[in-house]
Specification:
single chain; 232 residues; alpha+beta; five-stranded antiparallel sheet; two-stranded antiparallel sheet; 4 helices; 25% helix; 25% strand
């Protein structure tokens, strides 16, 4: 072998050694097993079951109706409802959010009064009719704001028989004679956060006492006394 050939072979060997080698092709990926979550599977099955039940319910309930009561004319609040004002109508079973009055309670609605304005064709609900509007004739409602030291700590409820008693000024002497008081019946109690520590008690009194009570309640110099629970 000549010296030139030998040098050429050595140069080719050096170039081959310094040439970057290409990486080999990656082998096939190993299959991974999906992780099963029993809770998610159970939830999915439950949702499917609920969907099926809902579909069955809607399918079976469609076409089924029940008889309910409605008004066939406009009736103003406080007006008496006569038999001629009531109509029996068909409503879908289970597909209405209204708690309508069934047709078999016709006699219980007749001659009662409308608790609110009723539109022609409106379904009657238990809240649509009352025996009489509050307050009844000869009675009035007065709101009295009371601090915690102006009323008993026991909870007041609608129907409690009470007395609203006039009290002396702060630091004043107690009255020698029996203080002015008005008998009343609690109709509503409100302890809204916007009122602070005060409670507003709506009381029903005779109309001829309403003005005197309202004037005294406005001064804040009153106290409430419970006479009988639920006696009103």
């Amino acid at each position: 072998m000549s010296s030139g050939t030998k040098v050429a072979n050595q140069e080719q060997h050096v170039r081959s050694a310094t040439r970057p080698q290409r990486p080999g092709s990656p082998g096939p990926l190993k299959p991974t097993r999906a992780r099963r979550r029993p809770a998610l599977i159970a939830l999915g099955l439950a949702l499917v079951a609920l969907s099926v039940l809902a579909s069955v319910y809607v399918t079976t309930s469609q076409g089924q109706t029940t008889e309910a009561l409605a008004v066939n004319k406009e009736i103003s609040r406080g007006a008496k409802i006569s038999a001629a004002d009531i109509a029996v109508v068909e409503v879908p079973t289970g597909l209405t959010l209204l708690s309508s009055i069934p047709a078999d309670q016709f006699d219980q609605v007749e001659n009662r009064v409308a608790a609110t304005d009723l539109k022609n064709g409106q379904l009657l609900t238990p809240d649509s009719v009352v025996e009489e509007l509050s307050p009844p004739s000869g009675q009035s409602i007065v709101g009295v704001a009371l601090a915690p030291n102006q009323m008993p700590t026991s909870g007041l409820q609608a129907g409690d028989a009470v007395r609203i008693v006039e009290t002396p000024a702060v630091g004043g002497e107690p009255p020698v004679e029996a203080p002015f008081s008005i008998a009343a019946t609690v109709t509503r109690v409100s302890s809204d956060a916007a009122l602070g520590d005060q409670t507003v008690v709506d009381v029903q009194v005779a109309s001829n006492n309403a003005a005197a009570l309202a004037a005294r309640a406005a001064t804040g110099r009153v106290a409430l006394v419970i006479d009988a629970v639920g006696a009103g």
